[in-house]
Amino acid sequence: MGIVEGPPERSTEVFGDLLYSKRDSKHRAIKYLIAAIIPLPFAFRKEHRALPIIATSVFGAGALVNYLESQEKHDAAYSLKSQKPKPVKPKSETPKSPEQTTDGFVLQTSEEFMTDMISSIQQAKDRVWLEFMQFESGEIMSGLVDSLIAAKERGVDVRLHLDPYTLDHTRVGNRDVLRGAQIVRNQKEPQSGLDERTLLQRNRFMTRYDLDLLKKEGIVTFTERSGRLRLLKYFGGGNHRKFSVVDDVSWLGTINLTDGDVTGMENFMLRITNSQVVDVLKEIFANPQKENIAYQFLDFENSFELLIDSGKPNNSIIFEKSLEMIENAKEKIEFVTQYWPTGRLLKALKEKAKQGVEVEIVMEPMGDHRVWRYPFKIGRRSFLNSLERDPAGLKIYYADKPTHAKGLLVDGKAALFGSHNLYEPMVKAGVKEMSIYTEDPDLVTQMQERIFNHTK
């Protein structure tokens, strides 16, 4: 897979560093000013005035220098606004056009999706509706923010729904760090080459900056907390969906709105131009469902369902669909996950393996992702240790790079794909999810080639 080229209208690295540095200069100017004021009363005494006068003069000069420096950095940062944006293009292969696929569905990599969506937003005339779990400012995301604001200024209906998770966490590499937490290790982050603590501070600062821009334009809102996660503030708000509608085109899948999700890990989005499905997604965005719903499109040549979890604890039609698919498997089951199978799903997979069905599980590779950290590390280690004692016929593979993909493929004929990790603890918590089930041969083949074969 390639990487997204070219900085957008403002380079987040340069723009963010200048604004962050401007804030530091301003803070230093205030400190110097306070230091200059403290000895000032002593400068009016009849005796021993020289030292207070010198101190006031030196600190006053320091305050002035730092203030002028902060203004210079401010002007330099905003001068980037006048630069023309460079097009964002992926180096990866060009995806098939919707016309080449059955009913206008095409599976895109994260880079293809982001390029496609930003381009569509720049040409949008009616609506730009986005609903994602997480947003984190970055080189690519700053281009998205600028495109959203430009569309709003053209009179387009622009809305961005985010989960409160964005307010509580900051992305550092492939990890999410709680707001207010500090990084102890202080190592360099591989992708940016920056000291982790510096990267954490920059990301927090720029994310707040971009969210403030979006709030000012009336674009961003945060969804209500749901399920049991509403009681656990810093674990997110319970909205794990990732989908968007731009005029009459929709996407749904696995990506979050962060640079790391685009270039640092495997993610996939399904591009949809079928008017029936797009209309349903418009309705879901405008009027969020309070109950689980399975939309069945009966006039499709092959079975296709849009599955919506409303976020009720212990109630997931997507998870139940996965168990039904596993139960009906005859030859082979392929499962790609960021986590690992647990509970009823693991039991069902083991049972099928005993019956002679080939079961392959593709998992997150070892690295710096949260699944390799506590408390997730405990569950993952327990799962792998149990397989060492009794493999139960399950074949474990590790993705060749960090993966955020989520999918289940049965007998090469039926596929389940979307935001749901099929991780039972989240089912118990109650999380809003969106996935599709399909038996369309072309779409199943796309998923086979782009998700299952590509991640192993």
Automatic annotation (TrEMBL):
Name of this protein: PLD phosphodiesterase domain-containing protein
MF terms in GO: phosphatidyltransferase activity
Domain PLD phosphodiesterase: 235-261, 399-426
PANTHER family: CARDIOLIPIN SYNTHASE, PHOSPHOLIPASE D
Pfam families: PLDc_2
GO biological process, one term: cardiolipin biosynthetic process
Domain of life: Bacteria
Region Disordered: start-end pairs: 76-103
Record-linked InterPro entries: PLD-like_dom (IPR025202), PLipase_D/transphosphatidylase (IPR001736)
